[in-house]
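Deliverable D2.4 — example input (structure tokens):
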């Protein structure tokens, strides 16, 4: 929302001034400051997935098909589309014999089967941390466990994990659904989770489940990914000092939406999610001194820079980065892509001339 403007036709001074935002005198001299949370932005799994599509386009040429959004960020997807990527909902939309990349969120075995039936060349960009959950689901199902999968219904990651053992998995969509779970008296039961959930909400869900299922077994390691946890902890570190928290991320990004919730729960007076600086509203910043800023795990830093520039134009030029953890994890590219890159590099430059 832009500041009020007047065309000169108004002669009633009191009427014109009534439209001007009233600033609380107690806040008038308040220092404008930005607390920039770190870590933020791309995680290792997102970086790997995006680079996978970029390298595939370089190696094979356009078009390269991608099943679903490679990561949940509209700007990343639009950028890849401009380079020749074509995003589809299902494998049966891909022309037979074409190359298709599976997104970072993972796919069910049935999707691999559909791709094979169409003779598609597949590149699996599933985040290795999601793949770990898939392996756990298969193992526990093979061992006769009922698996309680904590996650959001309809999310692509949940669909992929459920597809690994559909007869053994029961979805638990948050604490409010914990009391609805029906488990046989003699069933062995274990819980797994979507990797992008709120840590606190997942803990609450498990505690609610354990009240009814005292023998509920924990997974061998935490399923919520390191990047999700780190970004939530970083928000918690700054939230109480923020008059407003801005989270950069798309609406279909689970981890970005969770950051808004975590910020409010941790003490931020207000919290908003935006795709980019274009969605910021001047009204959100009336009487605001300290602005908190972070971004979801699928957000390129250029979008954060855009928000910082927008804020700087309005007087928030003092920026302090608050770091709660360091991240150095790097995932290698999918095996099939590395193999083809290596093969292409081995071909003499003048071959075929």
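Example output (designed residues):
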């Amino acid at each position: 929302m832009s500041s009020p403007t007047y065309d000169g036709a108004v002669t009633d001074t009191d009427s014109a001034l009534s439209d001007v935002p009233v600033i609380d005198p107690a806040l008038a001299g308040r220092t404008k400051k930005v607390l920039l949370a770190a870590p933020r932005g791309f995680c290792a799994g997102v970086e790997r997935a995006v680079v996978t599509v970029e390298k595939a386009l370089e190696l094979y040429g356009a078009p390269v098909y991608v099943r679903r959004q490679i990561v949940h960020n509209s700007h990343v997807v639009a950028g890849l589309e401009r380079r020749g990527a074509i995003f589809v909902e299902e494998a049966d939309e891909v022309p037979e014999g074409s190359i298709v990349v599976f997104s970072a969120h993972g796919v069910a075995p049935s999707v691999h089967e559909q791709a094979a039936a169409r003779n598609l060349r597949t590149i699996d960009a599933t985040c290795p941390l999601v793949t770990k959950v898939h392996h756990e689901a298969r193992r526990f199902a093979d061992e006769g466990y009922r698996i309680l999968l904590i996650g959001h219904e309809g999310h692509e990651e949940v669909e992929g994990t459920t597809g690994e053992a559909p007869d053994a998995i029961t979805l638990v969509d948050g604490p409010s659904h914990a009391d609805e779970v029906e488990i046989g008296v003699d069933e062995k039961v274990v819980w797994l989770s979507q990797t992008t959930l709120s840590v606190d909400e997942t803990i609450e869900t498990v505690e609610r489940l354990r009240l009814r299922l005292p023998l509920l077994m924990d997974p061998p390691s935490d399923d919520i990914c390191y990047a999700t946890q780190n970004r939530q902890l970083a928000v918690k570190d700054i939230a109480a000092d923020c008059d407003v928290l801005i989270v950069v991320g798309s609406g279909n990004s689970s981890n970005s939406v969770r950051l808004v919730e975590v910020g409010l729960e941790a003490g931020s007076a207000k919290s908003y999610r935006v795709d980019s600086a274009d969605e910021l509203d001047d009204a959100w910043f009336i009487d605001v001194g300290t602005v908190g800023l972070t971004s979801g795990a699928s957000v390129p830093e250029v979008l954060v820079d855009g928000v910082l520039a927008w804020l700087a134009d309005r007087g928030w030029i003092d920026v302090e980065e608050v770091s709660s953890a360091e991240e150095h994890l790097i995932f290698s590219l999918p095996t099939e892509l590395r193999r083809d890159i290596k093969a292409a590099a081995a071909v003499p430059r003048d071959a075929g001339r």
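DSSP finds eleven helices and twelve strands in the chain.
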